[in-house]
C-alpha cells in the first residue's frame, strides 16, 4: 500500500494531477510543406498509381540503404507482401518473436504458415539468436525479426543461428516498422535483412496517414511484391497503355495493397525531415536515461553495441517488487497524472486466437511473458517540449515516491 500522506497527493486517489491534458505516448506532426505537397497531388492528373509512387519508392530506398522499395498501404501489408514473396505456404514454419504487434505473426498465418515463437533477450527484448537456433527445423521457411522499439536485431547472429549443414539458407525478414532511421554498424535499417518491412502509421517516424514500404536487394522479390500489391495482376495499367492492350492476367492471388499518390506526396515531404526527427527522439531518450539513472525501479532497455537506435518507443521495465506496487497500478496512476503511458506488447502467443489455433500457452516464451508484466512505454515524439518531458519524469517520481 502507498504511504497515506503521499497517496493523498496522487490523482489516482483524488489529488491534483501533474498535468490536466493527457500527454500521448506518440503523436504525428504535419507541416505546411506537407499540406502543400498533398494539395499539389490533389490538383494533379494522378490520385493513385501515378508517378509519385515510383518517386517515393526511390527516395525511401535511398534512405533505407536498399536498392529497391515497394510501397503498400500499411505496415501489415508490407509484412504480408514479404511473407508472400518468400513463398511461405501451408506446412511451412516461420520463426517470429512474440514481443511485437500481432501483424508480425498474422502475416504468416495469412499465407497458411505456422508461426513458431522464439523467446527474447531479457534486456533488449529483441529475438534471441540462441532461441532461433533451437527452434529452426527442416520446416523453417523464414525468420521474422522485430526491431523492437527502434533497435535493430543482431542479423549476423540470426543468420548464423539458422544455418543447418546441407540445408538451404533461411531468409530473414526484418520487421523494421519501428526502425526507420536506425543503423547497425553504420548500415541503415532496410539493408540488414533479405526483406525489411516498414510502417508509415501516424505515430511512426514519418507518416502517409496509413502506409508501408518493403525494401530488398533482390529484384525478383521486389517484382513479386509489386504484383502481389495489385491483385496478383501480371501487368499494370502503364504497361498495358504502352502496349495498346487491355489484356491482363492474374497469375497468383494478390490483394489491393496499393498506396496512393496523395499519400506518397505526404511521405516524400515527411522524408525530408526524418534526420531531425530521429535526432529529437534520441535527445528525449537520452534525457529519460539520465533522469532515471538513479531510480532503481525504472530500467530502460539495454542498447546493443554500435547501434543507432531510432526510438519509435521508449520502453522501460518497472522493477516494483520491493515497493508494494505492480505495473497495472503504476500504469493507472500515471494515466491519472496526465501521462499517456502504454504497453507494447501483449506477447502474441497469449492472444486468444493463437491459443485456440496453435495451442500456444503461458510458459512458451517465459522471458517475453515476464517482461510483459513489467514494461511501460513512456511518451516520445519529436514535438514533445522540455515541459512535456519534465512532466513525465515528475509524474513517475511522484507515483514511485508514494509507494516506496
Please, could you describe this protein's structure?
With 404 residues, the chain is an alpha/beta fold. It has two domains: 4-28 and 274-403, Alpha-Beta Complex (Aspartate Aminotransferase, domain 1); 32-271, Aspartate Aminotransferase, domain 2 (3-Layer(aba) Sandwich). It is 37% helix and 13% strand. It has 15 helices and 13 strands. Strands 1-9-8-5-4-2-3 form a seven-stranded mixed sheet, sandwiched between helices. It has a three-stranded antiparallel sheet with strand order 7-6-11, with no helix packed on it. Strand 4 (140-146), helix 7 and strand 5 (172-175) form a beta-alpha-beta unit. The radius of gyration is 22 Å and the shape is globular.
Number of strands: 13
Strand order of the largest sheet: 1-9-8-5-4-2-3
Low-confidence stretches: none
Number of helices, counting only DSSP H or I runs of 4 residues or more = 15
**Shape-level CATH architecture of the largest domain:** 3-Layer(aba) Sandwich
Quick summary:
The protein is built from 15 helices and 13 strands. The chain has 404 residues and is of the alpha/beta class.
Key terms:
single chain; 404 residues; alpha/beta; Aspartate Aminotransferase, domain 1; Aspartate Aminotransferase, domain 2; 2 domains; 7-stranded mixed β-sheet; 3-stranded antiparallel β-sheet; 15 helices
Amino acid at each position: 500500500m502507498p504511504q497515506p500522506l503521499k497517496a493523498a497527493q496522487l490523482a489516482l486517489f483524488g489529488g491534483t494531477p501533474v498535468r490536466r491534458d493527457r500527454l500521448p505516448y506518440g503523436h504525428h506532426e504535419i507541416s505546411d510543406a506537407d499540406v502543400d505537397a498533398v494539395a499539389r497531388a490533389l490538383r494533379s492528373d494522378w490520385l493513385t498509381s501515378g508517378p509519385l509512387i515510383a518517386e517515393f519508392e526511390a527516395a525511401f530506398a535511398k534512405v533505407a540503404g536498399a536498392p529497391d522499395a515497394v510501397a503498400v498501404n500499411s505496415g501489415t501489408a508490407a509484412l504480408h507482401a514479404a511473407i508472400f514473396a518468400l513463398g511461405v505456404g501451408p506446412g511451412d514454419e516461420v520463426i517470429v518473436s512474440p514481443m511485437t504487434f500481432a501483424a508480425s505473426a498474422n502475416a504468416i498465418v495469412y499465407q497458411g504458415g505456422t508461426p513458431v515463437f522464439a523467446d527474447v533477450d531479457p534486456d533488449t527484448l529483441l529475438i534471441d539468436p540462441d532461441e532461433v537456433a533451437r527452434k529452426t527445423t527442416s520446416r523453417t521457411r523464414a525468420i521474422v525479426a522485430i526491431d523492437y522499439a527502434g533497435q535493430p536485431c543482431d542479423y549476423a547472429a540470426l543468420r548464423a543461428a539458422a544455418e543447418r549443414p546441407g540445408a538451404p539458407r533461411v531468409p530473414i525478414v526484418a520487421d523494421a516498422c519501428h526502425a526507420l532511421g536506425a543503423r547497425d554498424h553504420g548500415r541503415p535499417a532496410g539493408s540488414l535483412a533479405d526483406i525489411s518491412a516498414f510502417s508509415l502509421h501516424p505515430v511512426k517516424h514519418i507518416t502517409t496517414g496509413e502506409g508501408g514500404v518493403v525494401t530488398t536487394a533482390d529484384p525478383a522479390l521486389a517484382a513479386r511484391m509489386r504484383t502481389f500489391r495489385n491483385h496478383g495482376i501480371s501487368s499494370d495499367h502503364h504497361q498495358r497503355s504502352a502496349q495498346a492492350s487491355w489484356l491482363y492476367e492474374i497469375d497468383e492471388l494478390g490483394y489491393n495493397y496499393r498506396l496512393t499518390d496523395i499519400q506518397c506526396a505526404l511521405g516524400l515531404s515527411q522524408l525530408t525531415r526524418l534526420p531531425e526527427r530521429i535526432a529529437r527522439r534520441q535527445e528525449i531518450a537520452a534525457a529519460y536515461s539520465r533522469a532515471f539513472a538513479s531510480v532503481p525501479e525504472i530500467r530502460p532497455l539495454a542498447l546493443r553495441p554500435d547501434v543507432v537506435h531510432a526510438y519509435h518507443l521508449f520502453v522501460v521495465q518497472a522493477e516494483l517488487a520491493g515497493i508494494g506496487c505492480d505495473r497495472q497500478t503504476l500504469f493507472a496512476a500515471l494515466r491519472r497524472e496526465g501521462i499517456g503511458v502504454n504497453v507494447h506488447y501483449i506477447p502474441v502467443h497469449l492472444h486468444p486466437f493463437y491459443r485456440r489455433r496453435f495451442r500456444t500457452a503461458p510458459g512458451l516464451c517465459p522471458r517475453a511473458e515476464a517482461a510483459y508484466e513489467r514494461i511501460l512505454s513512456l511518451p516520445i515524439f519529436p514535438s514533445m517540449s522540455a515541459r512535456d518531458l519534465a512532466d513525465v519524469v515528475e509524474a513517475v517520481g511522484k507515483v514511485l515516491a508514494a509507494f516506496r
